[in-house]
Amino acid sequence: MSISMVGIDYNKASVDIRAQFSFTKKNAAAAMEKLKEAPGILGCIILSTCNRMEIWASTQEEWEGSLFDFLCEEKGKNPEEFRRYFVERKEEEAIEHLFYLTSGLKSQILAEDQIIAQVKDALSMARDVYCTDNVLEVLFRMAVTAAKRVKTEVVFSRGNSSVIHQAIQKLRETGYSLDGSNCMVIGNGEMGKVAALALAEAGAHVTVTVRQYRSGIVSIPKGCDRINYGERMEFFPSCDLIVSATASPNFTLTKELVQQAATGKKQQILIDLAVPRDIEPSVNEIEGITLYDIDSFKIDTNSLELQESMQKAAAILREQMEDFYCWYDGRSLIPRIQDIQAEAVQDLNLRILKILRKTPMEDEDRENLLNAIDVAAGKVVSKMMFGLRDTLEKEEFINCVEGLEKLYGA
């Protein structure tokens, strides 16, 4: 069995390139189901966020396929045109990447909050469509556990943030104040709610757009107003800053719409947090409009304080990865351990049965007692075997297993 992944992220590809390989939840589910049917694929997971898209797979050792070729075929792209934007990793390199990624140490905003939930959601979605397997299940769960430890034990002075928090900080550094400003957030999904709350906390008056057909059942962040999505352009001229963060496949703000709504007399800031883009890039050509996209806000990771935090996080991740490697390296022994367990229980049964036959009791009671002994003996043998696995060196434990196999004729 082998672990492989292929990915594209903000380090190597612009938002427009990444958008061509992003997946909606529905499309990701369909793609995973298709990949899972391919010969040699034992399990797969797709992680698709604003900053990255990754396909993970556990495969048979002899598998010679290509996740990159599968992706390009799925998206209708020429592999040679886009190969330079992708990274492929296997085994230890892939495992280390996932642990660092889930901890936010590869995020555009260092140690940001959202990536842990995104990794958990990717695993959950793969699980829902029966596409994950034992190896990916354990790998992703242990990466999340490691990330939570990093989150708890390591302080990143500029971490615990998101793109919108970084955007607000960058604007402040240019002298722009949100206090008392009029802001509109287009989109009331997870990212839209984070943006609305961050802007409100910065002192802005925030209005959130809500799709009309959902307006009766959705909630908006506390302290924010709401308007229907169709009213956004009427509200646009009164705004100092507009954030768009939807999952729409179409532009929420086009150049034509903004030209009609903008007065040109008022300086307005537009921030596009979506992948694919929500705001047509040419909007930036309109007088009085300044447009930022999700790649506009990056953090300096070269400070001494951040480097020390990174070293602490790395030590935690090495420890957590070692736990995974112990499980991963020992998983092939589990069927052999189970066989030894079954043989040992059967051996005990034969010895106990001789005694029970001479003991006066009802047949039903005898059968119930044997079943109880089976369960108890199985637990004892299992505890002993896995206890040895956790305390002995790998080679010593393998020797123990081989010796017990010879003893029980397994």
Automatic annotation (TrEMBL):
Misc note: During catalysis, the active site Cys acts as a nucleophile attacking the alpha-carbonyl group of tRNA-bound glutamate with the formation of a thioester intermediate between enzyme and glutamate, and the concomitant release of tRNA(Glu). The thioester intermediate is finally reduced by direct hydride transfer from NADPH, to form the product GSA.
* Site feature: Important for activity: H97
> Which residues of the sequence carry a binding annotation for NADP(+)?
G187, N188, G189, E190, M191, G192
Q: Which residues form the active site?
A: C50
Q: What is this protein called?
A: Glutamyl-tRNA reductase
Where the record annotates domain Tetrapyrrole biosynthesis glutamyl-tRNA reductase dimerisation, the positions are 312-409
Matching entries from NCBIfam families are given as: hemA (TIGR01035)
What's its job?
Catalyzes the NADPH-dependent reduction of glutamyl-tRNA(Glu) to glutamate 1-semialdehyde (GSA).
Domain Glutamyl-tRNA reductase N-terminal per the UniProt entry, residue ranges: 6-153
Any idea of its EC number? 1.2.1.70
Residues annotated for substrate binding in this entry: T49, C50, N51, R52, S107, E112, D113, Q114, Q118
* Species name: Blautia hansenii (Ruminococcus hansenii)
Self-association and partners: Homodimer.
